[in-house]
Amino acid sequence: FYITTAWSPQIYFTVRGAENFHIYLWIAKDLCWAQDNVELGMIFGSLAVLWLLVLAYHALRDQYFEEVYMLLAMSLWLLGNYVWMEGELVNGDDAIGAPAAGHVFETAGAMIILYHIFLRPVGLIKYNQAKAKIYESAGLISRFEYFQTWRQYEHSHTLFWLGKDWSWNTLNPYSWVFFLIPTVLIAA
Fold first, then answer.
1. Alpha-carbon span 69 to 17, nearest angstrom
2. pLDDT-based confidence at 110, cuts 50/70/90?
3. Cα distance between residue 98 and residue 184, in whole Å
4. pLDDT in the model for residue 7
5. Stated pTM of the model
């Protein structure tokens, strides 16, 4: 692993940089959640969900519909995570937000599965190579033929991570391990 480009604030004006900024917001939300800091957890959680919607807006403006679809599914996932956090932090009770969050996780997971088993294979959401270049700045290549881009590979990771969160939310240790293993392997 070598860094070939010097750091520049301009990175945050690229798609990858805007996504990295979103990750910082989400990590701050998780840190506040872990420390039972209600106010900051709600602020960073709200900012993270709104920032993801901004990313979806830009993908819609670019007419990159594959990205729009996946960002909407991810927005649901993060919204479910936010509802779960809100139940714990504001109400002090996991039983209040967790069931609603679980349903939001299920909807987001169903959207991603629908994309992979129907929408993409049938061609209802087509891969657009010209639009994808804006979103493919990492230069990475998937080793699996099903995925035309690294980004599609990343979206499969989202499905497994979402499944892990859903399993944790529903207190299902067997499915948690089932989703954890591919999540870790893909991340590695």
1. 20
2. very high
3. 24
4. 67
5. 0.81
